[in-house]
């Protein structure tokens, strides 16, 4: 380090003394008398020695101080950048032995609880190989080292010139290490406390310690003090950074929704590790504040603290924590009663109590326990404990919040699921995230994750007129993308089986409490039945007005004609034909209005039946006769293929109405005339009447609706075939009220057959 003028070349005072054969006591006396100070020492004081030798001695002293200054500067330079405690200690210690000229030098760190010292680095110039043996034993208790205890209170250098006689020495120990002379210097940290001691040791014979030696030892120690303080500060900063990371991890856990047990276990492990405790645990206070529950621990005790539940009052330390609201180190000496028992059962000497506070409310307690000692905790240690505890409390609070929120969400979900309206929810990107049961049924699908561009396709939507619905014009798209509220829009849904549904819906954008866009909700209803009813009503009105107008026009024309002819003096008898015609049209109108009234009565259940037992065959024959009377283009036949009588319990007037309806259809829908056959037979306990015509038949499409009110076949344009479309509906209702059936048995373009069954009495 010092090149060719290395310190080993220098003469130490001891070396000079032995060179000159001067006894150490004599040298010390000279020193105290100032005879050895470089300037004032004259040849007379050293008369017994050769002037040449003394000059050599004085010269060597000068060289030593000059070289020492240089070394100090160089060491300072070497360690100024280093933040590694050991590297710094090694550099300083190795320079120190050479500058001061001791045989050994070391730096011992004082433990946090100030009970032991532990070597950081040490060196032995007389036997470098033995340094390890000398300086790296287990921590040494300070109680065994009076000089160290002294240094903790008094960091000024302490000189023990002879370990055999000095009061602050323990000769046995020093004898073991063959140490006779010691200069011990305390190193003080930025907080003013001694954090390390730096002994300079001479072996063998007692060494004569000069002011220079002490001065140099002090300089080197000061150097070590600064360098080590920096390194320690760096370590502290590093530790603070670590602690910040730990807290940050817990924060992450909290926001990441990590399992509470895991979070707390990690937190307590970190607390125990950072505060050098032996073990720790976290207890939670239940939301009712009645009991305390073990939630996390670093070591599994035989009792096992996780999951243990105890009444709050039975835990004595809770009162203490509640009182202080801050982390607090409690030693066994302070405890009594239950708390003392607790300490004894855990076999601990002290425990740091850390309250878990959420918005000022105590929600739990963390402990860091020390088995055999009471640690010397710094403010930054308790600050760390406090910050960590605050995050744990936050984690708990959040879990509780989440639990209640998820309970609320589950309720809401159940409500939405069971709503008798369709609900579809899209997120802020418009992706579908929820489709309730009703909406799924309505669309025949509940695809999730669908983006606005694909709504129409995924949910089979089109405009009412059947044209494609541009997806971005759909209500839900407009609500999500434009933030629009769309009310009562209608569209068409085509199901897999080809059937169509008309949907009506309203879409509303969803916003969070702070106004951020969350997505949109669509509420949708099936309005097919309503729309159909409306269409039916329209159709009914137009048909009814048409049907009533036709006879009215005829009546009007005929009566006007009759009046004119009578005015002109025509014989009233000649007008009679017209009047018959008028009366026929009036009857037709009567019939129409009667049918309308009947259908209404059937619907409201107010159509009275006056039933009696009748033989069916005569009724069929009568119907044939009535029908034949109104047509001469058709031949109407009645056939019986069963044993008479076929007795049925019926309202004769109503049954006649049914026969007349079917027969008038058979006539009406076979415009070219032909045969109409009424065939009565028996099938078990049923009477079966088949009515066949040779008419236009009924096209495939619409056969199912034949018996619906106001339904008229597509093959019967109103201009050619009059009618309200209620004949068959009315007939089926009447038959059903007689516990019978009326169906279309068969049809082709050459005719149709209706089949009517009635139970026999
Ligand atoms: P309307 O005859 O007044 O139209 P209905 O209820 O009696 O009403 O008949 C409903 C429809 O059934 C008719 O419009 C017609 O299309 C069809 N229909 C009924 N009977 C026959 C039949 N014998 N031949 C062909 N089509 C028929």
What is the percentage of strand-forming residues?
A: 15-25%
- Hetero groups bound? adenosine-5'-diphosphate
End-to-end distance, in Å?
Answer: 133 Å
pLDDT averaged over residues: 83
How would the global form be characterised? rod-shaped
Widest β-sheet, arrangement of strands: 3-2-1-6-5-4
Low-confidence stretches: 1-12, 37-52
* Strand elements, count: 25
Outline the biggest β-sheet: 6 strands, antiparallel
Question: What share of residues is helical?
Answer: 40-55%
Annotation field: number of helices: 20
Structure classification: alpha+beta
What's the Cα radius of gyration?
A: 57 Å
Walkthrough of the structure:
The chain is α+β, with helices and mostly antiparallel strands and 761 residues long. Helix content is 44%, strand content 23%. It has 20 helices and 25 strands. It has a 6-stranded antiparallel beta sheet with strand order 3-2-1-6-5-4, sandwiched between helices. The structure holds adenosine-5'-diphosphate.
């Amino acid at each position: 380090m010092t090149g060719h003028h290395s310190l080993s070349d220098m003469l130490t005072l001891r070396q000079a003394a032995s060179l000159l054969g001067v006894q150490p006591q004599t040298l010390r006396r000279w020193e105290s008398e100032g005879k050895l100070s470089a300037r004032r020492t004259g040849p007379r004081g050293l008369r017994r020695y050769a002037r040449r030798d003394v000059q050599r001695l004085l010269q060597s002293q000068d060289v030593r101080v000059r070289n020492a200054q240089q070394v100090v500067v160089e060491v300072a330079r070497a360690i100024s950048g280093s933040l590694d405690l050991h590297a710094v200690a090694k550099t300083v210690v190795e320079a120190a032995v050479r500058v001061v000229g001791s045989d050994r030098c070391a730096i011992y760190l004082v433990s946090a609880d100030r009970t032991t010292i532990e070597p950081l680095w040490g060196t032995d110039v007389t036997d470098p190989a033995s340094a390890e043996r000398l300086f790296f034993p287990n921590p040494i208790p300070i109680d065994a080292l009076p000089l160290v205890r002294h240094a903790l209170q008094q960091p000024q250098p302490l000189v023990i010139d002879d370990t055999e006689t000095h009061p602050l020495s323990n000769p046995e120990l020093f004898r073991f290490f063959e140490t006779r002379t010691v200069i011990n210097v305390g190193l003080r940290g930025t907080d003013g406390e001694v954090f390390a001691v730096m002994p300079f040791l001479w072996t063998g014979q007692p060494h004569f310690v000069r002011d220079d030696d002490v001065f140099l030892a002090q300089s080197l120690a000061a150097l070590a003090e600064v360098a080590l303080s920096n390194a320690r500060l760096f370590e502290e900063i590093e530790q603070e950074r670590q602690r910040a990371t730990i807290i940050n991890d817990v924060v992450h856990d909290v926001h990441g929704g990590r399992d509470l047990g895991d979070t707390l276990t990690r937190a307590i492990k970190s607390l125990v590790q950072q505060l050098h405790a032996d073990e720790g645990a976290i207890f939670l206070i239940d939301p009712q504040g009645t009991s305390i529950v073990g939630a996390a621990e670093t070591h599994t005790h035989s009792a096992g603290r996780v999951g243990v539940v105890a009444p709050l009052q039975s835990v004595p330390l809770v009162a203490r924590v509640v009182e202080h609201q801050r982390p607090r180190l409690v030693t066994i000496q302070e405890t009594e009663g239950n708390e003392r028992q607790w300490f004894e059962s855990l076999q601990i000497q002290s425990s740091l109590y850390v309250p878990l506070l959420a918005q000022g409310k105590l929600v739990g307690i963390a402990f860091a326990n020390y088995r055999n000692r009471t640690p010397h905790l710094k403010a930054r240690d308790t600050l760390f404990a406090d910050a960590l505890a605050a995050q744990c409390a936050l984690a708990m609070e959040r879990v509780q919040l989440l639990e209640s929120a998820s309970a609320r969400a589950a309720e809401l979900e159940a409500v939405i699921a069971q709503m008798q309206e369709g609900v579809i929810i899209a997120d802020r990107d418009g992706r579908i995230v929820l489709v309730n049961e009703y909406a799924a049924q309505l669309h025949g699908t509940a695809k999730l994750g669908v983006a606005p561009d694909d709504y129409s396709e995924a949910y089979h939507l089109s405009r009412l007129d059947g044209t494609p619905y541009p997806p971005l014009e759909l209500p839900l798209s407009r609500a999500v993308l434009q933030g629009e509220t769309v009310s009562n829009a209608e569209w068409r849904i085509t199901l897999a089986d080809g059937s169509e549904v008309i949907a009506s819906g309203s879409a509303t954008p969803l916003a969070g409490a702070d106004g951020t866009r969350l997505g949109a909700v669509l509420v949708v209803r099936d309005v097919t039945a309503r729309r159909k009813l409306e269409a039916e009503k329209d159709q009914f009105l137009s048909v009814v007005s048409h049907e009533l107008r036709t006879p009215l026009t005829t009546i009007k024309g005929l009566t006007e004609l009759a009046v004119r002819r009578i005015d002109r003096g025509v014989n009233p008898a000649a007008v009679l034909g017209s009047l018959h015609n008028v009366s026929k049209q009036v009857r037709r109108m009567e019939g129409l209005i009667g049918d309308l009234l009947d259908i209404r009565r059937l619907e409201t259940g107010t159509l009275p039946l006056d039933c009696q037992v009748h033989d069916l065959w005569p009724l069929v024959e009568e119907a044939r006769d009535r029908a034949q009377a109104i047509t001469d283009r058709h031949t109407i036949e009645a056939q019986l293929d069963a044993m008479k009588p076929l007795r049925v319990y019926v309202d004769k007037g109503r049954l006649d109405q049914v026969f007349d309806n079917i027969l008038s259809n058979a006539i009406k829908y076979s415009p070219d005339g032909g045969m109409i056959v009424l065939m009565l037979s028996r099938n078990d306990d049923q009477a079966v009447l088949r009515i066949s015509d040779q008419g236009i038949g009924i096209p495939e499409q619409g056969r199912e609706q034949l018996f619906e009110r106001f339904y008229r076949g597509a093959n019967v344009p109103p201009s050619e075939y009059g009618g309200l479309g209620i004949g068959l509906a009315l007939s089926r209702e009447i038959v059903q009220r007689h516990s019978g059936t009326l169906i279309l048995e068969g049809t082709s373009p050459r005719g149709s057959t209706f089949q009517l069954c009635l139970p026999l009495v």
